[in-house]
Amino acid sequence: MAPSQHELRAIYRDTQIIRKPTYGIISGYHELPFVLLGESFSPNHHTTRVRGKIQVSPRLILRPPSAEPSYDEIFGEEHVDTMLVGRVFGFFGFRDKPVECKSDYLHLEHLDRHMDTVLAEELDAIEYREDITMGVVISPNTQYFPVSIERFIASILDDELRM
Predict the structure, then answer these.
(1) Is residue 2 part of a domain?
(2) pLDDT value, residue 103
(3) pLDDT band at 86 (very low <50, low <70, confident <90, very high)
(4) Which terminus of the chain, N or C, has fewer Cβ atoms within 10 Å?
(5) Sign of CA dihedral 104, 110, 116, 122
């Protein structure tokens, strides 16, 4: 049986974003890797883990020359051609946000270990690798994990596209 709109909103609201990428979409990354954890919906397991990478497309940012700050002041000169006057970000699927996301990689597995143990292992591994791009999400209902992934993406967009 499909969940009601109220249940989907509750999953969205109760999703916990444990770790966001240090640098996100606008700062230069176009791939957002994540690991999502939650209680397993499989009766013989404790935890469900979903690993994925979200591909994001650019968003258009137009500023007249007289507006401050300039493009290179926003994005830096290191990896950006300062002669550019705009960069295109297009996202579909989020109300009031120009967002397009796709995932070519998704791996779901049910684990016998408790979620707290798996979370600690994931965070330790991320820290060991010094991975600044990985997001970590806790879903209240892993059967509907795409709702929690949407919440993760929306949280990044809220931070980075606020102008």
Answers:
(1) no
(2) 64
(3) very low
(4) N
(5) negative
